[in-house]
Amino acid sequence: DVKVTQSSRYLVKRTGEKVFLECVQDMDHENMFWYRQDPGLGLRLIYFSYDVKMKEKGDIPEGYSVSREKKERFSLILESASTNQTSMYLCASSFLLGGNEQFFGPGTRLTVL
Amino acid sequence: KQEVTQIPAALSVPEGENLVLNCSFTDSAIYNLQWFRQDPGKGLTSLLLIQSSQREQTSGRLNASLDKSSGRSTLYIAASQPGDSATYLCAVLGNAGNMLTFGGGTRLMVKP
Known about the structure:
heterodimer, A: mainly beta, seven-stranded mixed β-sheet, four-stranded antiparallel β-sheet, 11 strands, B: mainly beta
C-alpha cells in the first residue's frame, strides 16, 4: 500500500515563527502536493512538485514556500506564521503521468496563536 | 476555470439504504475523476478513480459513474452501514496538468 506520512498530527505555533511541515512518501512517486483545507472553502492547492528541486505554484502560494531536496520528501515552509494560516494541511503524492491517483497523508492540524 | 459542485452538502439515512451522491463539473475536458472519503480530522482515502474514457468503476459496495459530456458523476453506495458515515469528496483532474479541483463534499451520516 502507498504510504504518505506527515511529521506532525497537531502543531501549535506563535505568530511570526518559522514553521516546517514535512511529508514523506514511500512509493517512488514523482509528484507531491501540499493542500490546505478550511471549512466552507474546501481543499485548495498551495504548491506542487513534479521532480526533485522543481516546484509549481498552486492556487494560494502566498505566505508559503516549499522544498524538495529528495524525491520522497516534500516540505512546506511558513516563513512567518500568521493567524490566518491556522488550518488543516494535507500532503499528497502521485506518479508523474497524468491520470494517476493521488494518495493523501493523515493531515497536520496547525494552530497559529 | 473548473468548478466542482457536490449536492447535497449533507445527507442522513437509516442503515441499509442504497444512496447516491452527486458531483457536477463545469469543464468537460477532464483527464479523470476521483472519489475520496474523509473521516473527521483525518486525511483523504481514495475510493475510486474513473478515467475520462471510462463510464464506471466498482469497488465492493461502491459504484461510481461518469458522464463527461454532461459534466456529472455519481457515487452509489449499496446497503449503507454506520461505518460509511464520513464526508465524501469528488475531484477532477483537468487535461492541462496535475492539479485536482475538489468539490465541497457531501457529509453522510448513516444511522443504526
